[in-house]
Design goal:
By secondary structure, the chain is mainly alpha-helical. The chain is 56% helix and 11% strand. It has a three-stranded antiparallel β-sheet with strand order 1-2-3. A hairpin with a 2-residue loop joins strand 2 and strand 3. The N terminus is likely disordered.
Length: 202
């Protein structure tokens, strides 16, 4: 004989399956080397100027693609602080439990940011597809490269995290101010390093 079976709605079952936490089976540890990045700097000079500026901003700042797209779409001079040869742009973006306070970049890319604005809308998914189509280094790997290089240059990990927007949202005011001041100084080392990469790409 057959026992009575309780039937559940298929949509409910699928929703429950999606809610089950899954461990990542693959951890991508690939970090591009300097030669690869220099080659890509040379290559992006030949692509659409809007996507070139976006890619170079990612290289200089280490922020996420979505944050860089937001910066370019909503760029406002009042959020900009110029610190000699480098710039600090106020983002104040929340991403889950993380808070990207600022984007740091050079005076050189600032001029390009000002030049590209004019009707073009930066959409992260479109940018990813574009870079993939033209075999340009993915923003995900670019971000890893920036972090790795900052540490190699002697920038403290906590400061590199702050620059790349990995600071927790509940940071205290005193700690926030200290990190910002440290980032203002330490970023200059990375900015100079990026300039050497751009020279090599010529």
């Amino acid at each position: 004989y057959y026992r009575d079976v309780m039937l559940y709605d298929e949509n409910l079952i699928n929703a429950l399956k999606k809610a089950i936490p899954r461990d990542k089976l693959f951890l991508d540890l690939n970090v591009p080397n300097e030669e690869e990045v220099v080659r890509n700097i040379a290559n992006v000079r030949e692509i659409n100027p809007n996507y070139r500026v976006l890619w170079l901003l990612l290289l200089e700042s280490g922020i996420r693609l979505s944050e860089a797209a937001y910066l370019l779409n909503a760029f406002d001079e009042k959020n900009l602080t110029v610190l000699g040869g480098v710039c600090r742009y106020s983002l104040s973006l929340m991403r889950g439990s993380k808070h990207a306070f600022y984007a740091y970049f050079t005076r050189e890319i600032l001029e390009e940011i000002r030049a590209v604005r004019g009707g073009f809308v930066f959409i992260p998914q479109n940018a990813s597809h574009y870079y993939n189509k033209y075999n340009i280094l993915s923003p995900k790997y670019l971000r890893k490269f920036v972090f790795d290089r900052m540490l190699a240059l002697g920038i403290p990990e906590s400061v590199a995290d702050f620059i790349e927007g990995r600071t927790v949202r509940a940071i205290g005011a005193r700690h926030y101010t200290r990190l910002m001041r440290q980032a203002d100084e330490h970023y200059k080392k990375y900015a100079e390093y990026v300039r050497t990469l751009e020279e090599k790409a010529k």
